[in-house]
Amino acid sequence: MSGSIKAFSINYNPVNESNTFTNGDILQGTVVLQISKEVKIDKLYIKCKGEANVHWTESNGTDSSDDSYSAHERYFKIKQILIWDNSKMEQNGDILVTKGETHKNLVMPGHHAFPFSFQLPHGNTPSSFKGSHGSITYALQARMSRSWKIPQNVTKEFTFVSNFHGNGALLMRPLSGSVDKKLKLFTSGSVSIRASTDKEGYMQGERIKVETHIENSSSRALKLKFKLEQNQVFIAKSRKKHAAKVIFKAVEDPIPFRSKKTFTSRLKIPSNLDLTITDCNIIKVEYMLKVYLDIPYARDPEIIFPVVIIPACQYSFPQPNQVDSYASQNRRESIGTGSSFQPAFVAFPHVPAATAFGPAPNLYPSVYTQPANPVEPPPSYTDIFPDSNSSASGFNPSLLPFSPPPYTTMDSSPAPHHHTPECPTPECPTPEYPGAAGYWQSPANPDFYPTK
């Protein structure tokens, strides 16, 4: 920064330990200005936006020029005005402008922190991702304009994790497959693989459980191997660009020739692995687990299992009526080349008709004593809560969590001691330590700043 603007930055408050946001979260923070002398600002605003972009080039094979492919997809753009000169008009187009506190455009020297607050939209929005030919990004962007000055911009990205991951019951069902192969040339005989995984959807950092049975009727010892692959697909102008990446490989002990062996393998998924993305029109991220035998000088027999990576603490469990419905569906095609093995389905125990509805017995404590005669009518509301004017403790219907805090002067008196979280820096504030707020000339001589 130069001139009278010494610092221009954005700070936001994390809402969890992983510093991620999801649909419906409230994103709050401050736009920070450090000014050396009095300045007049025509407008200062901040935008919160989510978008996807792809781009790549290909040789057309006819001349020296390349064909370029690009695509863009916007999910939302929200704008909040912090300083505004009423004498100047502006067109916002399709940008949603939210209400917030606006301040006078004559800003005094010192350190200023202008609060903002956005509620991230609900709906099916893909998670953050950066790939080889495109990205899905979510960012805060502040812009300051002054007369006869080039507008100044500052951008800060944040990580968005979608809370939509399809049908949880489908992700929880086991998968299985099989493949047989006859060997020739340098290896004679045949091999057979039967494999199954405990489910299809896994959280970051979880382990994939694979049960594998090998019948090695060949003339040499063979090794069972695993490989998790990521496939990125970028789409623009009806063209697709693929990029593959191996996440990990694993190998089991050799299977001696003319023998059988069963393995139970637990394969660790990296805790920072990108999430599966299927809800973006121009970027797809998918995973597949390959279970195969390494056969020299021959095509390896393999079984391919789809794997869906979902974020930790966002796990969906199937309901009994959902899983039972899959048994009546048409038979699913077997997984893997040459496979005739039918995937297994989850079967829930039979529930008696008398207990088909309501919570499981003894799962929740009763709020009143059960009557000796079960045919008696249940107690009324006033029998349980005599005070009809009582309300839930701690509930304040007038409290709006997405309203930004007022623009105030920071108190120069020392704050009471609290447990300090790790790395409380201006770049990474916390709800307990949100960073600077308000305006002051010096800590020893605070001066209130007019906000209206």
Structural account:
The chain is mainly beta and 452 residues long. Among the domains are: 5-59 and 68-160, Immunoglobulin-like; 168-310, Sandwich (Immunoglobulin-like). It contains three helices and 21 strands. It has helices spanning 168-172, 320-326, 381-384; strands at residues 5-12, 20-21, 26-35, 39-40, 43-59, 66-84, 96-98, 106-107, 110-119, 129-130, 134-145, 152-160, 175-183, 189-197, 201-203, 207-216, 223-236, 239-251, 259-268, 283-294, 302-310. Strands 2, 5, 6, 7, 10, 11 and 12 form a seven-stranded mixed beta sheet that branches. A hairpin with a 5-residue loop joins β13 (175-183) and β14. Mean pLDDT is 75; it is low at 315-372, 387-403 and 405-452.
In short:
The protein has 452 residues and is mainly beta. Helices cover 4% and strands 41% of the residues.
List its salient traits.
Immunoglobulin-like; 7-stranded mixed β-sheet; disordered C terminus; Arrestin C-terminal-like domain-containing protein
Fold topology:
Layout: E1 5-12, E2 20-21, E3 26-35, E4 39-40, E5 43-59, E6 66-84, E7 96-98, E8 106-107, E9 110-119, E10 129-130, E11 134-145, E12 152-160, H1 168-172, E13 175-183, E14 189-197, E15 201-203, E16 207-216, E17 223-236, E18 239-251, E19 259-268, E20 283-294, E21 302-310, H2 320-326, H3 381-384
Parallel strand pairs: 2-12, 6-7, 15-21
Antiparallel strand pairs: 1-3, 3-9, 4-8, 5-6, 5-11, 10-11, 11-12, 13-14, 14-16, 16-19, 17-18, 17-20, 20-21
Organism: Ameiurus melas (Black bullhead)
Protein name: Arrestin C-terminal-like domain-containing protein
GO cellular component, one term: cytoplasm
